[in-house]
């Protein structure tokens, strides 16, 4: 498969590799994406890709980090706890608009690679470290069920709006969406802890 547009060769080699990899991983499966193809798209030697990123899994993780914008996520979780629902809602609603036309997001990358055991493990680790753990800490709960629920809510919304492009969601007013999502997040954070499964100890 050939990428749809040429990559700017004036950019540093690592940036070209990340862009080429993001295009590949967001448009075809992880297992069907080869480092040689990425290297060719980026106009570098495949040996350099190995030296710079170590492996395909390492490059995949770097792509996830590059499309998510870790600094933006850190800013959300650095906010006071009472502002977290509004910050999270604003981040999710506005993030799609912040991306330029044709740019890809983390969910495009994750969904294309969901059939790969290796890629799925990398995505889960990325979500765990970059979102679930800091969210659980911010919520101040000993269990993380509510953090998982909020993550699933936001992921589902972003997939419907940015990946599937459902008109029933894309045509909704952004300010209304931010308020609605913030209310849902606040409600989920205040839920009672889930029942303890048989044989497990309460946290």
From TrEMBL:
Give this protein's Gene Ontology molecular function annotations: DNA-binding transcription factor activity; transcription cis-regulatory region binding
Q: Could you confirm whether the keyword Protease appears in this record?
A: no
Task: State the superkingdom.
Answer: Bacteria
Which Gene3D superfamilies does the protein's record reference? Tetracycline Repressor, domain 2
Task: Give the HTH tetR-type domain ranges.
Answer: 11-71
Q: Which UniProt keywords apply?
A: DNA-binding
Q: Give the DNA-binding residue ranges.
A: 34-53
Its signal peptide is: none
This protein is called TetR family transcriptional regulator
Q: Which organism is it from?
A: Martelella mediterranea
